[in-house]
Each structure stands twice: as structure tokens, then as C-alpha cells.
Design brief:
Helix content: 25-40%
Strand content: 25-35%
Distance between the termini: 16 Å
Low-confidence stretches: 1-8
Number of strands: 20
Shape: elongated
Strand order of the largest sheet: 8-12-13-20-19-18-17-16
Largest sheet: 8 strands, mixed
Radius of gyration: 29 Å
CATH class of the largest domain: Alpha Beta
Number of helices: 16
CATH topology of the largest domain: BirA Bifunctional Protein, domain 2
CATH architecture of the largest domain: 2-Layer Sandwich
Mean pLDDT: 93
Length: about 500
């Protein structure tokens, strides 16, 4: 955009702002408060349409934002938008009076009004409220983006993604379909709470500000508490606190956890995100696979169907989810038997595939990085990938078959993305201490994602934690899946954005 164009744009906006302020002044001079305190609303737009037969010729009161005005001298048609949709208004000087109509002529698209009137249909059959009185509720100063619509078809839409994310309030006003995503999100949230409650789980809260971060391999955000004069971390996960509750005698707990990770951003990562973590005593990862499968099937039914369309794929939740060991997937998709591989063998494989690697990677890191690159994108239908390397799973029990390289861990993949991470939780305090000490050494050596050593957590495990199954679900990703969105920013009201100077 040229400097001249930018100047013209700002010049035009400044003119509009001044014109709107002048209109507010004129309305005040008419003895009208352009920002009154209340208005009695009796009906919403969709309610009137749905109950037209019962409401025809009856008086209703509606309120909302003017989204279209078609003036025709002494009478006008307009469209009012409320939380449920839009409805047509017929506003006549003869019906609302000369003074009110004079004020109406000063209104703009975007202004918020209240209408009291009679429900009717026009000759074209459109449900309409014929105004008997009009109340200005909010006179806007800043204009809405121009969105053109003809015969129900929107064109010249407010489609600039970055601007929509920065100014979500505008996005919600001029793109009403965006609201549906967040309404569905609320529905899934409610269904999730009902699911856990029906299975005897207690919803709990754990600290967001923590003296030590843990429960995941991630870089934390750091802050400082003035009164305590100590540095604190925004949590990266709530796992270690939820396990403390299991130790304390709560057998089934879950939390909607707002987590913060000081890492990169892309279509499925936002530095601030929501996870669901839940823990149940006396069960293992096999039990949790069944439980997670039931949960996803429940959410699919809540949304109306056991199958969904996502990124061009039909995902069927009615069938049993596949369960495949990570090592076997390399044989299935790459034709490579890696069951006896060492770090040196993986290095050779990376060179053959021209895959960039760090020679300091351990067995688990090699396996994990290669899996992400070559296997993960191929897992379309719901698939539990089971039995992960111990080296990258410091909080999970080793395989009960005696293979010390692997732990009882699974992740659920759908459409090439991970949605769930779960363990048979490690409750051997000696093994847990040794593993976290190793993680802490890696952290000191410069691994920013290695976990810190938490002595209080170890002491909790030493107090005795029963056999436990634990699960974490990326809730924002789950919402993306069930609402058909491909970017995490489309399921967050206010996603993280680079700073921009406001004008």
C-alpha cells in the first residue's frame, strides 16, 4: 500500500469519525441521550421467526445492531442483528413520529437500537417488525468494515485473517458464522464436563503460577512475584499437581488447564492454550485407551454424527480405534525394522534420507523426530500409537514385558495430528527421582525443554501414589477437529499476535 493510499485511508477515516461525533452532538441537541442505560427486550430475532404464527400482529421489543438501511423518504427498511441472527424492520415517520424519524435519519450502520413494534410479513413474505417506537441505545463513532450482501449471498466480505484475529469484535459482528464455532466450542466444553461427571470425576483447579515447571517438555514463561520476591513460572502442564491430588486420596480428578509455553507459533500451536488433563487411580494406559475412545465418540455424537469431514477426509469414530506400537509403524509405513537400532543406526538412516539431525540426540529423540516427519502425516483415522521410548517419557512406567527402552505411553493421532498423550503413570519414587535428575542435568546442559527437578513432587510420590492412568488432551485442537477449523487461531477468541500500533 503506497504512502498516498495510506494517507487517503486515514484521511477518510478521520472524516468519518468527525461526522459521527457531529451526529452525536446533534442528537444530544434534540434532547436524546445517545447512550441510555437500559432497554426492555422481549424477543430475539430467530424467536420471532420461529414463532411467527403465534406472534403475528403482536407487539414485541427487539434490540441489536443496524446492519443495513434502505431509506425511502418517509419510510425505511432496515436489518437489525442480535445474538441469534437478523430480522427486518419497517420504520415509518407516521408510526414513530417526526422527531424520532429525524433522529433515525442520523443513524449509521453499526448503531445499536431498540425497536418496539408489531410482527408482520411484507408482500415478499419476509418476517418484519413494524416499528411503533425507536430508541437509540448506542451511537457508534467508528465504522464497521463494509460487507456487501445480495439475495443472501455475501461478497466483498471482511476476510483479512490477520485483521479478523486482531479485531475479533469486528469479525463477530460482520461474520456471524464465526459465532457458530464458539457456540459449538461451548457445547463441547459442557459435554466434556458432563462426561467426566458421569464417570465420577471431580473437577479441580491447580496453580498457574508455579515455583517449578514440569509435566511436559517445554520452555516456560517466567514472571516475578513482588511480595514474595521470587521468580515464578507460568505452568506448562498441571500433571505434577494433579498427581499430588491422587496421592492425597482423590481417585478421579480432571482440570481444564490453561497452559503457557514459550515456543513457536503455527496453525496448531499458540503460546497460551487449553488442555484437559485427567487422572484415575488403579487403572493403566490400556484402560485409558478405552476411556479416551469413549470420550471422543461421545463428543462426536454431541455434535450430531459419529463421522465428520475434516481436511478432505471422512473420520469415523464409530469404529474401534487402531492400536499400533511406534516401532511397528516404521515397518508398516517405511518398510524399516528399527527394533534393534542404536543411535548410530539412526544417524545413518537420517543421512540416507537427508534428514537434518543432531548427533547428540538419544535413542528416543531420534525415534520421535523421524516419527513426526515420516509417520505422523499418514495417520488419518483415529490411531493410538503405543509404547514410546523411555528416554523421552520421564513420567511413564516402563513396559511390563521387561523391555527397558520403552514405556507404557500412547498418543492419539487423527488426520496427521496428535490430540492425546497418556501414560501408565510412574509411581516408583526411586525410578522417578533418577529420571528427573537426568532431565535436570539435560536442562543445565542447555536443553531448554528438559524438565526441572521437583523435590516436593518426588516426596509426594515417596508418600505413595497408587497405580494410576493419566491423560492430557489438547482441547483447542479437539475443537478444531469437531468444528472443521484448520488453524488454532480460529477457535480462540483472542489468539496471540505480533504487536501493532493502534490507530
Amino acid at each position: 500500500m503506497s504512502e498516498q493510499t495510506i494517507h487517503e485511508k486515514h484521511s477518510t477515516l478521520e472524516n468519518i469519525l468527525e461526522q459521527r461525533k457531529e451526529k452525536i452532538k446533534k442528537i444530544r441537541e434534540m434532547g436524546i441521550n445517545p447512550f441510555p442505560y437500559t432497554f426492555d427486550v422481549t424477543h430475539k430475532s430467530q424467536d420471532i421467526k420461529d414463532k411467527f404464527d403465534a406472534l403475528e400482529e403482536k407487539t414485541v421489543s427487539v434490540a441489536g445492531r443496524l446492519m443495513a438501511i434502505r431509506r425511502m423518504g418517509k419510510a425505511s427498511f432496515a436489518h437489525l442483528q442480535d445474538t441469534e441472527g437478523r430480522i427486518q424492520l419497517y420504520i415509518s415517520k407516521n408510526d414513530i413520529g417526526e422527531d424520532s424519524y429525524a433522529m433515525f435519519k442520523l443513524l449509521d450502520i453499526g448503531d445499536i437500537i431498540g425497536i418496539k413494534g408489531i410482527v408482520m410479513k411484507t408482500r415478499t413474505g419476509e418476517t418484519t417488525v413494524k416499528a411503533s417506537s425507536l430508541t437509540l441505545l448506542t451511537k457508534t463513532i467508528r465504522p464497521l468494515p463494509i460487507v456487501k450482501e445480495k439475495e443472501g449471498i455475501v461478497y466483498d466480505a471482511f476476510a483479512d485473517k490477520e485483521l479478523r484475529y486482531r479485531k475479533r469484535y469486528l469479525d463477530l459482528i460482520v461474520n456471524p458464522d464465526v459465532k457458530e464455532v464458539f457456540i459449538k466450542k461451548a457445547k463441547i466444553t459442557q459435554a466434556t464436563r458432563e462426561f467426566f461427571s458421569s464417570h465420577g470425576y471431580l473437577e479441580v483447579e491447580t496453580p498457574i503460577l508455579q515455583p517449578l515447571y514440569g509435566g511436559a517438555n517445554a520452555r516456560p514463561f517466567t514472571t516475578h512475584h513482588n511480595s514474595l520476591d521470587m521468580d515464578l513460572y507460568l505452568r506448562i502442564a498441571d500433571e505434577l499437581y494433579l498427581k499430588r491430588l491422587i496421592v492425597g486420596g482423590f481417585d478421579k480428578v480432571y482440570e481444564f488447564s490453561r497452559n503457557f509455553r514459550n515456543e513457536g507459533m503455527d496453525k496448531i500451536h499458540n503460546p497460551e492454550f487449553t488442555a484437559i488433563e485427567f487422572y484415575e487411580a488403579y487403572v493403566d494406559y490400556f484402560y485409558m485407551m478405552d476411556f479416551v475412545e469413549e470420550y471422543f465418540r461421545t463428543i462426536a455424537k454431541t455434535m450430531g454424527n459419529s463421522t465428520i469431514e475434516y481436511q478432505g477426509e471422512t473420520i469415523d469414530f464409530s469404529k474401534p480405534f487402531a492400536r499400533k506400537p511406534m516401532v511397528e509403524l516404521f515397518s508398516e509405513h517405511l518398510g524399516i525394522d528399527i527394533s534393534t537400532y542404536t543411535e548410530d543406526d539412526f544417524a545413518v538412516l537420517c543421512k540416507q534420507k537427508k534428514f537434518e539431525f543432531n548427533p547428540k540426540w538419544n535413542y528416543g529423540q531420534f525415534l520421535d523426530k523421524l516419527f513426526d516427519e515420516y509417520i505422523e502425516p499418514k495417520l488419518i483415522q483415529p490411531t493410538f500409537v503405543i509404547d514410546y521410548p523411555k528416554a523421552i517419557s520421564p513420567l511413564a512406567k516402563v513396559k511390563r514385558d521387561g523391555d527397558e527402552r520403552f514405556v507404557e505411553r500412547f498418543e492419539l493421532y487423527i488426520c496427521g495430528s496428535e490430540y492425546v498423550n497418556a501414560f501408565s503413570e510412574l509411581n516408583d519414587p526411586l525410578d522417578q527421582r533418577e529420571r528427573l535428575e537426568k532431565q535436570d542435568r539435560l536442562r543445565v546442559q542447555g536443553d531448554e525443554e528438559a524438565q526441572a527437578f521437583d523435590e516436593d513432587f518426588i516426596q509426594a510420590i515417596e508418600t505413595g501414589m497408587p497405580p494410576t492412568g493419566g491423560v492430557g488432551i489438547g482441547f483447542d485442537r479437539l475443537i478444531m477437529l469437531f468444528t472443521g477449523q484448520t488453524s488454532i487461531k480460529d477457535v480462540l477468541f483472542f489468539p496471540a499476535m505480533r504487536s501493532e500500533k493502534l490507530s
